[in-house]
Amino acid sequence: MCAGSRAGPRSWPGCCDWTRRQGSCLVCAAWLHDIGYAPLLAGRPAFHPVDGARFLRRFGAPAPLYRLVARHSGAAVEAAVRGRSADLAEFPAVAGVICDALTAVDMQTSPNGRPVSVRARVAEILTRYPQGHPVHTAVSRSAPHLAAAVARTTARIHGSDDE
Predict the structure, then answer these.
(1) For residue 92, is it within any domain?
(2) Which domain holds residue 26?
(3) Sorting pLDDT into bands at 50, 70 and 90, what band is 24?
(4) Is 127 within a domain?
(5) How far apart are CA 33 and CA 91, in angstroms?
(6) Number of folded domains in the chain?
């Protein structure tokens, strides 16, 4: 997906140079999807998918990468909960296999980088954020969709994709 980028490694994060040559931004998006949590990047009010995507766009990252960062792992649901849907609308949705794969990576990796089940990851997030917090509300609402993206990705990996 990054193959058409004109940006060089000095203008956007170096890991993307490798993935650009490989023809896919998935690996780069997996590394960078939470970059918007960096305090220096956070907008006011903070919304990490959009803050990260704006940062990457500003520094010349290819559109497929910053769109994946903006739209990762239920971001549309969280944007609606936070009243930030207009901000998220700057970044057209990314559908299909690559979006599912990024969600699967995110939802099967613990905050310390260990593999976990999607059920355990959702439970961890709901424990970390109290009831009433926008993240808790959004993850509670999007959990079935997150689990479905993981299931579709797993099916594709194992060759039983029915799409």
Answers:
(1) yes
(2) 15-157
(3) confident
(4) yes
(5) 14
(6) 1
Which residues partner with 109 through β-bridges?
115
Per-residue pLDDT tens for 59-74? 999 899 999 999 999 9
Q: Is residue 9 part of a domain?
A: no
Q: Tokens standing for 12?
A: 């956007």
- Separation CA 92–CA 90 (nearest Å): 6
Residue 44, amino acid: R
The packing angle between helices 48-58 and 63-71, to 10°, is 170
The pLDDT of residue 82 is above 90: yes
Expressed in angstroms, the distance from the first to the final Cα of the chain is 20
The answer to pTM > 0.85 is no
Q: How many residues does the chain have?
A: 163
Mean pLDDT of 12-28: 57
| 41 domain-assigned | yes
